[in-house]
Amino acid sequence: MTQQGTVAIERMDGSAAARAEAAFRLIYAEAFAEPPYNETEDDVAAAFRRFPSQARRNTFRAALARTEDGEPVAMAYGWSLDPDTGWWDELTEPVPDDMRREDGHRTFGLMELAVRGPWRGQGIARRLHETLLDSIEAERVLLNVHPGSKAALAAYRAWGYRKIGEARPWGTDADLHGVMLLDLH
Questions:
Q1: Which has the higher per-residue pLDDT, 4 or 122?
Q2: Which of 131, 79, 139, 65 is nearest to 110 (CA)?
Q3: Residues 2, 48, 172, 139: is their CA dihedral positive or negative?
Q4: What string of DSSP letters covers 41-84?
Q5: Spatial distance between the Cα atoms of 7 and 13, rounded to a whole number of angstroms
Q6: Range of weakest confidence among 15-24, 134-143, 170-179
Q7: pLDDT at residue 1 above 50?
Q8: Is pLDDT larger for residue 163 or for residue 1?
Q9: 141, 60, 62, 145: which is closest to 106 by C-alpha?
């Protein structure tokens, strides 16, 4: 682990995140190129074709960590799930209707959380997570996690998430992911 000096975390709405898209893209591309994700340049390009429309959602929230000299080191973002979200339909086993119920405010979907390699193991992910959730008014947080990402699984469990099922996000060719839920209230 290399200590990289002071890291500041900024909470952002969608318009601020859109202006910082290059920083989000840099972190995403570096973090998700590694196993178990192995994302290619084409995968990153596809993810960031969606980013501008995601950032325009009125419930979009992000957090961006930078060093004192402005170098981006970590990011997280998500938004509240719409009443007609397809997230619950991706689970391999159905969950009770009450768990599936969405109203546009009940559940915050944590879409991405990533820390670049040299800054891992310093508590930055936890600080990002806390900063991001501090700005929302939801009952719970939902996320998908790749089972090969042992560090992410351990962190989410330590933060209070529990596994509620498995899903193949983005279609049938995707790796099976754990679906985790954090109750906030």
A1: 122
A2: 79
A3: positive
A4: HHHHHHHHHHHHHHHTSTT-EEEEEEETT--EEEEEEEEEPPTT
A5: 20
A6: 170-179
A7: no
A8: 163
A9: 141
Is the pTM value of this prediction over 0.90? yes
CA atoms within 13 A on the CB side of 5: 9
> Chain centroid to CA 98: how far?
24
First to last CA, the chain: 35
Q: Rounded to an integer, what distance in angstroms lies between the CA atom of residue 2 and that of residue 117?
A: 10
Residues in the chain: 185
Strand 61-67 to 177-183 pairing:
unpaired
Cα-only R_g, the chain: 16
pLDDT bracket for residue 77 (50, 70, 90): very high
Omega within 30 of 0 (cis) for the link into 35: no
Task: Determine the pLDDT at residue 108.
Answer: 98
Q: Which two tokens stand for residue 94?
A: 């159905």
Strands of the 140-145 sheet, one edge to the other:
7-13, 61-67, 72-80, 107-115, 140-145, 177-183, 162-167
For residues 185 and 139, is the Cβ–Cβ distance under 8 A?
A: yes
Q: To 10 degrees, what angle do helices 41-55 and 21-33 make?
A: 140
> Residue 96, Cβ neighbours under 10 Å: how many?
7
